[in-house]
């Protein structure tokens, strides 16, 4: 009887065991004893010892990050794989941002090399041109021109230099030298030459060339420096932003290596799961997006200015030509200019044994200057020209917009990182194989409040990210001002005009030279020194006795009055009270 009763019980027990085994193979709960061969192989391929790896699945009660079902991971394996998941994440961020870093680093080097050599070539061109044309007269006064290029280099390199002052000082020194050269029959004391230079702006001995050259060179140098500094800032921002302090190891481990612990190392996380994890990890970086896009736009616009109205190559090449034009203008008008100077500063002492004729170039002809055709336009050590450099930069800047917000999508689109978006039912959903049901969260820190995969404290914004946002804003502001020919570092000290000077209309005009609001065809009374005397410049400290006097280079009210009236009407008055300027 007992044997007959035990037989059905035996059959029922076998049936229950079979059902349990079959359901365990298909369901979410694994069965102890399942092989961990695939997990051990992948773990070994990553360079880790399989000494602590179970041969078959064991109870997962010891797991801290992965689901506590039957597992192929020991505690040590889980810790190792958690660190590996963090390294994988950081490498993914680094790899996908390499385009940014490479572009900013290489473009900055190329532009910097190019701009510096343009300055060198400009100085070399002037030395060659003026040595041929003026000979010893130039070599004896070469330091005046050398100092101009020293200051231009210092400005481009980031020095606290006002380009308006640089050119003002250059023309002041040059007028003293040229005035002496066109009047070799007179002796001029240092005080007398200072009187000449103090009133050069009203005399306009060089015509309108100083203003044109200052405007052209200033806005080209402002834009060039802003672009170079902007590219360096972009490089630094990317370097800092991609040094991620990952506080989302749990989410990274759960999506990438928990399938491995479950014995399914080839199973990739669902695409939406990956997005939620990576968006949580890069929440602070996504907050850079607005300022980043503004920064990229500003870089793009300044680069366009440099190949258009603020063309650095044309500005650098024009320095020697325009300075030569200025000297020729003073030579051609030397009699008129000298007469006015003698009336204002007094009659100089004649040089014994010299005639009273002005210095003229032998033969009355000038040697032609070297000019370049577009076909033989010189290049620098960068192996290119500005137009080509700008074109290449713009092509690389375009895809940079939206980078930080799109970065999670870029990472999760990699087949090694996540399953394809169309494979929603055969991917790892964080617990087992199947569809991932939660919605994908938004971008940025605040949006992570509902992120089911990564716990982010939205009440504590990242300090480093806030600093990067401020750096981007400052760089963008500089670039935007540079688009108008303004240097932010000198806006307050230059009466709001920036290093571009006081020519507000020209700074915003893109069709200069020749057709701007102050072109010769436009009779602008604001540019007439007789109707609008120039404002006295600021006193500047200089080495040497002439620059340390109390009066500096400030004009007196009497001197301004003399050039504010018609010279013919004022002549008898000046003869009576000569000299009025001294």
Automatic annotation (TrEMBL):
Membrane topology: Lipid-anchor; GPI-anchor
Start and end residues of each stretch annotated as Disordered: 345-382, 480-552
Function: Cell surface proteoglycan.
Coiled-coil region list: none
Name the UniProt record assigns to this protein: Glypican 2
GO terms of biological process kind: cell migration; regulation of protein localization to membrane; regulation of signal transduction; smoothened signaling pathway
Domain of life where this protein originates: Eukaryota
Biased amino acid composition, Basic and acidic residues: 501-510
Secreted listed as a keyword: no
Localisation: Cell membrane
UniProt biased composition (Low complexity): 517-533
GO cellular component term of the entry, any: synapse
Main localization category: membrane
Pfam families: Glypican (PF01153)
Family of this protein: Belongs to the glypican family.
Signal peptide segment: 1-24
Keyword terms, alphabetized: Cell membrane, Glycoprotein, GPI-anchor, Heparan sulfate, Lipoprotein, Membrane, Proteoglycan, Signal
């Amino acid at each position: 009887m007992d044997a007959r009763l035990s037989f059905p019980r035996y059959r029922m027990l076998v049936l229950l065991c079979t059902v349990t085994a079959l359901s365990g193979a298909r369901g979410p709960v694994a069965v102890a004893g399942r092989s961990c061969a695939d997990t051990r192989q992948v773990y070994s391929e990553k360079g880790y010892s399989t000494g602590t790896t179970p041969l078959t699945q064991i109870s997962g009660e010891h797991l801290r990050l992965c689901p506590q079902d039957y597992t192929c991971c020991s505690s040590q394996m889980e810790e190792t794989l958690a660190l590996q998941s963090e390294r994988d994440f950081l490498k993914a961020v680094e790899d996908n941002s390499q385009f940014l870093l490479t572009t900013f680093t290489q473009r900055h080097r190329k532009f910097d090399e190019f701009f510096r050599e343009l300055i060198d070539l400009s100085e070399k061109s002037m030395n060659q041109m003026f040595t041929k044309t003026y000979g010893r007269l130039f070599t004896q006064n070469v330091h005046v021109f050398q100092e101009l290029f020293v200051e231009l280099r210092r400005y481009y390199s980031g020095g606290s230099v006002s380009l308006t002052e640089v050119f003002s000082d250059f023309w002041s020194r040059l007028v003293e030298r040229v005035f002496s050269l066109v009047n070799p029959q007179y002796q001029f004391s240092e005080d007398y030459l200072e009187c000449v230079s103090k009133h050069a702006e009203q005399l306009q001995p060089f015509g309108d060339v100083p203003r044109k050259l200052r405007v052209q060179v200033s806005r080209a140098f402002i834009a060039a420096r802003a672009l170079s500094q902007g590219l360096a800032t972009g490089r630094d921002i990317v370097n800092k932003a991609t040094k991620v302090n990952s506080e989302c190891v749990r989410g990274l481990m759960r999506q990438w290596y928990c399938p491995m612990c479950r014995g399914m190392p080839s199973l990739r996380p669902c695409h939406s799961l990956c997005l939620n994890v990576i968006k949580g990890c890069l929440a602070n970086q996504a907050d850079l997006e607005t300022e980043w896009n503004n920064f990229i736009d500003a870089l793009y616009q300044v680069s366009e200015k440099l190949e258009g109205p603020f063309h650095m190559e044309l500005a650098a090449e024009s320095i020697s030509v325009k300075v030569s034009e200025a000297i020729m203008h003073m030579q051609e008008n030397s009699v008129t200019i000298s007469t006015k100077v003698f009336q204002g500063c007094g009659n100089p002492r004649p040089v014994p044994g010299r005639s009273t004729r002005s210095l003229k170039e032998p033969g009355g002809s000038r040697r032609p200057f070297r000019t370049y055709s577009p076909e033989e336009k010189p290049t620098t050590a960068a192996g290119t020209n500005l137009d080509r450099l700008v074109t290449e930069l713009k092509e690389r800047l375009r895809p940079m917009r939206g980078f930080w917000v799109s970065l999670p999508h870029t990472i999760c689109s990699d087949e090694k990182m996540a399953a394809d978006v169309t494979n929603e039912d055969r991917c790892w959903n964080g617990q087992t194989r199947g569809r991932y049901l939660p919605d994908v969260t938004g971008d940025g820190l605040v949006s992570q409040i509902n992120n089911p995969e990564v716990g982010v404290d939205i009440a504590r914004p990242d300090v480093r990210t806030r600093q990067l946002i401020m750096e981007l804003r400052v760089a963008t502001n500089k670039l935007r001002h540079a688009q108008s020919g303004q240097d932010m570092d000198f806006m307050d000290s230059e009466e709001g005009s920036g290093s571009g000077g006081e020519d507000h209309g020209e700074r915003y005009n893109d069709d200069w030279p020749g057709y701007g609001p102050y072109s010769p065809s436009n009779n602008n009374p604001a540019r007439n020194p007789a109707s609008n005397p120039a404002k006295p410049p600021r006193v500047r400290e200089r080495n040497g006795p002439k620059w340390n006097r109390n009066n500096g280079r400030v004009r007196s009210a009497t001197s301004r009055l003399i050039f504010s009236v018609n010279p013919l009407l004022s002549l008898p008055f000046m003869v009576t009270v000569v000299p009025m300027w001294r």
